[in-house]
Specification:
- The chain folds into 2 domains: 57 residues, no CATH class; 622 residues, TonB-dependent receptor, beta-barrel domain (Maltoporin, Chain A), CATH 2.40.170.
- The protein contains 5 helices and 38 strands.
- It has a 22-stranded antiparallel beta barrel. Strands 3-9-10-7-8 form a 5-stranded mixed beta sheet.
- A hairpin with a 2-residue loop joins strand 7 and strand 8.
- The longest helix has 10 residues.
- It starts with a strand and ends in a 6-residue tail after the last strand.
- The relative contact order is 0.13.
């Protein structure tokens, strides 16, 4: 424990007149505070109140212990203390605080990251739902891919926590959440103004400013982030980012509201993956086949959150509006389709998103009922794909106006059957309305779809520090609305499916033989058993899980068509361990292994291309009273099948990152970050598909295409006012 100068009041005994106050504590309050509410018999008899004033203490225990009672072994919380000294190459790396999650990049830094979890190559966010300050991040019917999740607008220093779940077991989670979900929260206030300046190799710089003045009866939080980064690439990224937040809050976390405005704008060049044969012949690992790839994007949002906690009830509500735009230029196949002007495409996405979420919980410690509803509308002014050369439009491949509305009520009952047995029963209904106006009339039309998903969880314990969990539930994922009632070229789809790649092989040609497409809402089914053992100074979890998907169908955003795939099954095991043997020392480790297979019989094979298998991470972090701090983190990314018959596989990679520094009186600090400490020459992403370089055969060559992990690099961080609170 660490002591601070302020004091707190400790009640030695409590009069009977206060018993009603404690017994009136709602189950939601108990969940938030971790309090146990049993009976008045636990209170002391009435006599005088003895008040002792002691120094304020900060309890430093397992971060898992800071989460409200959980319903699955795989549920957890990433605290700001865990984030504070984590060496992060990019903003999206904050998600690697979730055990089993890996982040990579296969293009310029302004593009959404690549995500991996539980046997999934999640592409840019499919099947993993993310929200920040109550605002969803995933984009349905996106120009580059379903569920596109760009986290470049997040500011890690302002994150007050990341609550995560895995699997299909929560009625609160809907689309994009079959593998899991993460909810980022922002602080309402800062203890003092903050400023941070970072400089590093590749012309990297970052400036962060933040403050939170008191305004009448509320608090204002303001943050501004500026980033520039060329990276190690032969064709510099020239990534330029402007990112800001203004947040006004009033009241308390139990009774209050907040209004948050966020804005992000980024521009960049991109070095996409390149074929192995080019590197073997002497082409630079960090070179770009098409140096005109890149993009621009912006995202502006305004949101409000409200919470009212009363004895016996908890009401939450939030609303948001988002203005979003992306222009992305990519060339993955080089000269396969157009031998003269090349295969570069522009993917354009411009939309306004509005939404509302409401939930109301009532009951007592033995029975709590939660009812809620999610409403979301995406008005997509343009989602288009164009053939381009050096970012100049040559022709339109497809351009659409899409309206996508969803209405999702949910209900959950939390039943405490006895002191060691608790159940959660939930049900969620998701209804969708799609309308598409396409530049190619046969692709225009509309559709409606709906799906109902029951959930169940059983929690047994505690027996001392041990809890056992069993979870099961139905979920779903949606497909791109442009697949509704529409047809796609059979030849193009067959070629895509054979390659096993989520990147394009050639441009889709409107018309052609029609085939039936999979439904817009595809059923997923998941189950998990797990255990958590949490003594005072350490904790460990173990879980075994499985997930079935009726169809791996995804809309291939790079190609502009919907390619129905095959049913699949994923199974796996996850293990985590965290301990704090000393106040100044924290150890963490996580291991996950997944098996992903198609369920039907096909001569092509039953491996799912890109599906992550083995993942492991470990870290050692320290922060002592002298002011020194540091963290050493290792990440293992196991090999993966790149084609259905498993004849081509990626290599494994192991990366070591570190940060160490000195903090003086919590007023200022200096730190050195080192990424890829051992300078491993490994890939960040690998794909297998067909492409054509100049002079190669017209049919192209099937090859592994890789985006390299950045080489060893250094960054120096100077900060004022930042602390590792949390």
């Amino acid at each position: 424990m660490r002591r601070a100068p302020q004091g707190v009041l400790i009640l030695k005994t409590v009069p009977r007149s206060l018993a009603g106050l404690f017994l009136a504590m709602s189950p939601a309050t108990a969940a938030l505070t971790g309090a146990s509410v049993d009976s008045a018999a636990t209170l002391a008899p009435a006599d005088s109140i003895r008040i002792y004033v002691l120094p304020k203490i900060e309890v430093v225990g397992s971060y898992e212990g800071s989460l409200a009672p959980r319903t699955a072994a795989s549920q957890g919380l990433v605290t700001p203390k865990s984030i504070a000294h984590r060496p992060m190459l990019r903003a999206g790396d904050i998600l690697e605080g979730i055990p089993g999650v890996l982040i990579s990049q296969h293009s310029g830094e302004g593009k959404a990251n690549q995500y991996y979890l539980r046997g999934f190559n999640l592409d840019h966010g499919t099947d993993f739902a993310t929200s920040i300050a109550g605002v969803p991040v995933n984009m349905p019917t996106h120009a580059h891919g379903q569920g596109y999740t760009d986290l470049n607008f997040i500011i890690p220093e302002l994150v007050s926590g990341v609550q995560y779940r895995k699997g299909t077991y929560s009625a609160e989670d809907g689309d994009f959440s079959s593998a899991g979900s993460a909810r980022f929260s922002y602080w309402n206030t800062l203890p003092n103004p903050i400023a941070s300046l970072t400089a590093g190799e590749g012309k990297y710089f970052r400036l962060l400013l933040g403050l939170s003045p008191r305004i009448r009866s509320g608090n204002l939080l303001g943050g501004l982030e500026l980033i520039g980064n060329d990276g190690p690439w032969v064709n510099p990224d020239e990534y330029r980012k402007v990112n800001g937040i203004v947040r006004y809050s009033r009241g308390t976390p139990e009774h209050g509201f907040s209004v948050t405005a966020m804005g992000y704008h980024g521009t960049w060049n991109a070095t996409d993956q390149i074929p192995q044969r080019a590197v073997t012949s002497g082409f630079p690992r960090f070179g770009a086949i098409d140096p005109t790839d890149g993009g621009t994007s912006y995202r502006y949002s305004l949101s409000t959150e409200f919470q009212d906690l009363k004895p016996g009830s908890l009401t939450k509500a939030s609303a948001y509006v988002i203005k979003y735009d992306l222009d992305l230029f990519s060339n993955f196949t080089y000269f396969l389709s157009d031998t003269l002007q090349g295969d570069q495409i522009e993917q354009s996405d411009e939309r306004v998103v509005t939404g509302f979420r409401f939930s109301h919980e009532t009951g007592d410690p033995k029975l709590k009922q939660t009812i809620g509803c999610d409403i979301r509308n995406d008005n997509i002014a343009e989602v288009g794909i164009y053939h381009t050369e050096a970012r100049r439009r040559l022709s339109a491949i497809r351009a659409d106006h899409v309206s996508e509305l969803s209405l999702s009520p949910f209900l959950q009952s939390d039943i405490q059957l006895n002191s060691r047995l608790r159940t959660l029963l939930g049900i969620r209904a998701d209804g969708y309305r799609f309308n598409v106006a396409s530049s190619y009339p046969p692709y225009s039309g509309g559709d409606v779809a709906g799906i109902v998903s029951p959930k169940v969880s059983v929690i047994v314990g505690p027996w001392g520090p041990l809890n056992l969990y069993a979870n099961g539930g139905f979920g779903f994922h949606s497909h791109d609305a442009r697949g509704a009632r529409f047809n796609a070229p059979e030849q193009t789809q067959a070629r895509q499916a054979k390659s096993g790649s989520t990147e394009p092989q050639h441009f889709p040609v409107p018309g052609g033989p029609a085939i039936a497409l999979s439904p817009l809402l595809v059923r997923t089914k998941g189950a998990e058993i797990g255990a958590r053992f949490s003594p005072r100074t350490w904790s460990a979890t173990a879980s075994i899980w499985g997930l079935d998907i009726d169809s791996e169908t995804v809309f291939l955003g790079d190609a502009g068509l919907t390619a129905p795939s095959r049913p699949s099954r994923r199974t796996g095991i996850e293990l985590t361990f965290e301990c704090r043997p000393e106040e100044w020392l924290r150890l963490e480790t996580a291991f996950a292994y997944s098996r992903a297979r198609f369920l039907d019989v096909d001569p092509a094979g039953n491996y799912i291309p890109g599906a992550v298998e083995g993942v492991a991470s470990a870290s050692v972090a320290y922060q002592n009273s002298s002011g020194t701090f540091g963290e050493l983190r290792v990440r293992y990314f196991g090999p993966r099948p790149l084609i259905e018959d498993n004849s081509v596989r990626s290599d494994a990679s192991t990366i070591l990152n570190t940060e160490f520094g000195y903090r003086a009186h919590k007023n200022w600090s200096v730190a050195l970050q080192i990424f890829n400490l051992l300078d491993r020459k490994v890939s960040d992403v690998d794909y297998y598909y067909r492409s054509r370089l100049p002079g190669e055969p017209a049919e192209g060559i099937a090859d592994v295409h890789s985006h390299p992990q950045e080489p060893r690099s250094f960054r120096l961080v100077l900060s004022i006012g930042l602390s590792s609170r949390g």
